Structure formats: C-alpha cells, structure tokens
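Give me structure tokens for this 371-residue protein.
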Amino acid sequence: MSGSGAKKSATTLAFVESPVQLLNVLEWAYTDALRAPGPETKPADLTVVVLSPHDPMTRGQLRRMAELARDEGVTVRWENARGGAGAPLKTIGGLRGPLRRAARIVIGDPFSRYVQLLLTLTRAKDLIVVDDGTATMEFISQLANGERLERWHRRGNSRGALDMAFAPVSATARRRLTPGEKRRVEVFSSMPVEPPPGVTVTANDFAWTRARFGPPRLTRGTDLVGTSLVETGVVDLERYLEAVAGLAEAHGATRYFAHRRESAEKLSRVAHEVGLEIVRPDLPLELIARRGPIGHTIVSFPSTVVHTLPLALAGTEVKVAVYDVDPAWLTSDASPRAQGFLSGVTDTARDVQRPGSVPSTAAPDTPLAMS
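Here you go.
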C-alpha cells in the first residue's frame, strides 16, 4: 500500500465477524500507519463494522477486542446483523452510505455471504483482505485458479439451493476481489501464500501485539490448544479425544485452551475424561499468550496458531509444536481436500517443532525436535 498522504487520509471501512479478524485489522492498521510519512502509529479515519454473530463466546471476545480497538483510536460500529428476520436488510440499508463513501474496504472473511453481499455495494478501489486464519491460504488458491469461493472443509458436492441462489452475488464479490486496472487488492497475512498476479501481499508479523503486550511470564508446563475440527465435521470426536489424551500424557499438560467454536459437550469430556483444565480465552490466543502466563511449550493440531503464535511470541522462549492429523481420524463427511489442506498447514508452518504422529496414551514422554 502506498504511504502517500492522499492514501493515508482516505476513509477506510473494515468488516469483521470474529475476534481474530478484528485483531488482524488492528495489526494491518498499525502497519499501514508505520509505512505512512511521519511518526504516527495510530490508524487514521478507520471505522470497524462488527457484524455480530450468534455464538455467545465469539460475541464476548469481539466485545473485548472492540474495547482494545477503541483504545487505539478506532471507531467501532456494532451491528446486530443476525438479530432477527429483518436484521440483515436493516444492517445493509444502514451501511449503504458508508460503503459508497469509503475509499478503502478491509474484510476478514471473503467466504462470508454477508461480506460478499456488502462487496457488491462498494465503489472502493482499494480492497484489503486480512487473515481469518488458515482460510486465507484457500482463498488465495481459489482466486489464483479462478475457482468459486468455498470453504475448504465443505464437501465439493454439498452445494444446496441457497448456494445456487447466492451464486451470482458470490461471483460478483469474487470479481471485486480480483485486481484490475482501477482496483487494487492487498492481502495482509501471516500465512505462507503465493499471490496471483496483481495481488499485493504484506506480511503480518504481529508488530502491534508485540508492541502493546508482554513479554509473558512462562510456566514450566505445556499447554494444549483446542481446535474446531470436530465441530466442522472433519475429525471424529472419539479419535480426537484419544489424541488429546495421548498428547496430555506425553507432555504432562494440564491446561487446554478451548477454541471459541468448540462445543460444551466436547469440552466437558476433555475435562472429565482427560483431566485437563479448560481455559476459555476472552481474547484471541495470540493476545492471551503474549500477555501470559503461558506454558513453556504450546502443543497444537494443524491450525492458524501454528503460524501466528511463533510471530506473536518472537523473542520469548516459548516453543510451539504441531502434531499431524492422522487420516484415520477423518469422518466420512470430511471434504476430499481436508487431509491435503491440513498437511499443508503443518508443512508450511515456520519456527515450529514437528514431532510427527500423536503418541498413544501408553507412550512415554516424546522429546521434541526442531524441524
């Protein structure tokens, strides 16, 4: 992105639906301010529109992130975008004016139908996509290959009537996200992505997080990071619980940081059957880990955090380890792309340890070796 004063004074409108998206908007704004002339590190003329989801845990984290955003001088507009049958029309109607006036649009989830619909209403010539986790890798791949925008964990033949009806909107949004003579597209990402021609990629190294928080106090133990692979229908529940038990025993872990989408029933089984303390973070894990206290070792399955935590925790002694997902754990409903995508998440992670397969519950402690 240009650091010119004209660009810096442009009205910027950001749309987020998750705490991680809002965190990455703040990271982008911090980076954008640093590359502009002058000493200012605060975002200029940025309004973040929160398209509030139903999930209570997600809403809670979003409200905490909104407080941090306001502390940074960002205007936050909270929309109960899913608050009833008439909420979408009311939300979209209220955003028409800001969408028409915005010179730059920042989005966190190009796969979101809500965001795709809003993209059809904008005249902005600058579009920025910030990370919504590992989905950014799939977005870039689909954009480069001219494919329709579809989440990686969905089955290829799962398109229903609603998908077909929404297809023209999705196609228009995809064209908006394709760079052209009068349209600039930037991807702000901590993921290893190869952009298609015309797309600018700016690295997200979590400079804002490191500048504002930490360094953390480290415990002597190991913390496990939960995933929503069961909830999205990718991994079998019983196999997942066996794997968590194996990791907890091998590493002597006592805490399990829950993903915001994990079900209460599954977390209850992790607590009672595996014996782990369930921690429900009130902020994205990158901030929780940076603020501390955090384990000396963090263990995860393939997920966004194996890419982001090494960046957020740079300069500390925390080790991040990622274990593979065994193909035998996949459900019959898992997308044919699931195993390849998860392997790619692991293989492309930097500054992590890759011990390989999950040890059985009877195995001794498995020493970690840096990949």
